[in-house]
Every structure is written in structure tokens, then in C-alpha cells.
Specification:
mainly alpha; 2 helices
Length: 101
């Protein structure tokens, strides 16, 4: 019994799209320019500073995720190209395996 090995580009593209949407939603949820205008209580301002640092880390995480998504997309396209070339080579072989009847 032979099995075909290959990448399903439809499923792969769908997953990449879902991943992009998730990262985009995460990016849209980041608040910008948080400040306390009416307090200078130390615990509150310290919490705000920590929250701002966390948001900066989240922005960095988002940029890394976007770079990884782009890399995954390139890898998927290359796998598809290699898949196609291998399929063409097998079909063009003069003594390629024939199914048993």
C-alpha cells in the first residue's frame, strides 16, 4: 500500500491566516499612552510602570510572531514547490512503480 506524502496548502494557508488574525487581535488590544493624571501614589504609579513594560514586551512578542509567520509561509511555499518537483520526477521515470491489479 502506498501513501502520498505532501503538504495540503489549503489547510496550511488557512492555519497561517488564523495565526495572523490572532496576532492582529492581540496587537489591537494593546492600550497606548497609559497615565495617571490625578494620583502620585507610589504603588499605583509602580503598577502602571510595570504594566507599560509588559505592554512593550507584548509588542516585541507580536513582532517576533509576525516574523515567524512570514518564515512559516515561505517554508510552506518551498515545500509545495519541492512536492511538485518530486511528483513530476516520479511521473517522468521510465520504470516507475505501477499499481498492483
Amino acid at each position: 500500500m502506498t501513501k502520498e506524502i505532501g503538504i495540503n496548502m489549503g489547510v496550511f494557508s488557512s492555519n497561517i491566516s488564523k495565526l495572523r488574525s490572532s496576532v492582529s487581535a492581540l496587537d489591537g488590544s494593546i492600550k497606548k499612552d497609559w497615565t495617571y493624571n490625578k494620583t502620585n501614589i507610589s504603588p499605583l504609579t509602580n503598577d502602571l510602570e510595570n504594566t507599560i513594560r509588559a505592554m512593550e514586551l507584548l509588542k516585541r512578542y507580536i513582532s517576533l510572531m509576525e516574523a515567524d509567520i512570514n518564515t512559516l509561509e515561505i517554508i510552506g511555499e518551498r515545500l509545495q514547490e519541492i512536492d511538485d518537483r518530486l511528483g513530476d520526477q516520479i511521473e517522468s521515470m521510465p520504470n516507475n512503480p505501477q499499481p498492483i491489479r
